[in-house]
Design brief:
The chain contains ten helices and eight strands. It is an alpha+beta fold. It starts with a helix and ends in a 19-residue tail after the last strand.
């Protein structure tokens, strides 16, 4: 049995314990209320939890391989060698080479050999350009809807070049004089069947009639031939004209002036042009955002906004020189 003197301190201790518990409970309720009201506090708590739960980074001294990666490397070597499978020595060589490469790579980093190396620098730039495209979702193959939308937005740059519809008679590399003799026969044949190539001259590997632009004619027959044909008025046979194939008589049947092109007329050019534009947009957006993290100066004078030039990543798989 405790006497009165002993009971008093015990009662005081019990009262203090109850008071402390009540205060802690109140502080807990206030902390919960603070967490529910302030998003920054929530992020702080969440960040602390993630930091506590996150796995520790692997030491740079650890080289961890897995059988799946080694199998993939061995399969690639099988394909390069054109074999059905690797023998034991070849499989061991793939494993040894993989480990050696990792050791050499880490030693290069440890020794600072990646610094002041333009090839390494350009390779890293290349990888970030690829990343910018991937983050922007630049498609490898644009859809029909994307191409039509791009065409509508850039309609002013798509024009149909001037073209001519023509027929011709061919007489080989040495047939100039013979064509001069065939010209009257060509005129007579045209009067009977206008717009049709007459059955005269030598066989020719390309069509005897067609519609083409100046550039197309220059590509197939040569620039001089294209200039001469585009200088002809419709409705009459020319004197002999030389091409890279030989000599020709040519009649321009109809001329089509340049003008706005339709979607179908430029459909083949659109995918590449669209992808180039999307890649430039993606890189420019990435650079504008990234530039905000740096203070850029020229001769000590800061640039308010760095200039953004058109920039494209090289084709994937292309090596850095």
């Amino acid at each position: 049995m405790m006497n009165g003197m002993e009971a008093a301190p015990a009662a005081m201790l019990a009262w203090r314990t109850r008071t402390t518990s009540s205060r802690l409970a109140a502080l807990g309720r206030r902390a919960v209320a603070l967490a529910t009201r302030h998003r920054a506090f929530q992020f702080l708590v969440l960040g602390g939890l993630l930091f506590a739960l996150a796995p520790r980074p692997i030491s740079s001294r650890d080289i961890a391989l897995d059988s799946r990666s080694l199998a993939a490397l061995q399969a690639a070597q099988v394909q390069r060698l054109g074999r059905a499978a690797l023998d034991d020595d070849e499989a061991h060589e793939v494993q040894a080479r993989t480990i050696q490469d990792e050791i050499l790579y880490r030693e290069a980093l440890r020794l600072g050999l990646d610094r002041d190396d333009n090839v390494v620098r350009q390779r890293l730039i290349q990888k970030v350009l690829f990343l910018a495209e991937d983050l922007a979702g630049v498609p490898a193959t644009p859809s029909e809807a994307e191409l039509r939308s791009f065409f509508d937005a850039t309609r002013g740059q798509w024009t149909r070049p001037a073209r001519v519809r023509f027929v011709h008679v061919y007489a080989g590399p040495t047939g100039r004089d013979r064509l001069a003799e065939l010209r009257d026969l060509a005129i007579a044949a045209t009067s009977r069947t206008p717009g049709q190539p007459p059955d005269l001259g030598d066989a020719f590997p390309l069509p005897r009639a067609g519609t083409a632009s100046h550039d197309q004619l220059a590509e197939e027959f040569g620039p001089g031939f294209a200039d001469a044909v585009f200088g002809l008025a419709p409705g009459g046979w020319s004197a002999p004209i030389a091409s890279r194939h030989g000599w020709h008589l040519v009649e321009v049947v109809e001329r089509f002036e340049a003008g706005p092109a339709s979607f179908d007329e430029v459909r083949g050019q659109l995918p590449l042009t669209y992808l180039v534009a999307r890649k430039k947009q993606a890189t420019a957006a990435f650079l504008r955002q990234a530039a905000t993290r740096y203070r850029i100066t020229i001769d000590g004078h800061p640039l308010a906004a760095p200039p953004i030039a058109d920039r494209l990543a090289p084709p994937r798989g292309e090596s850095v020189d």
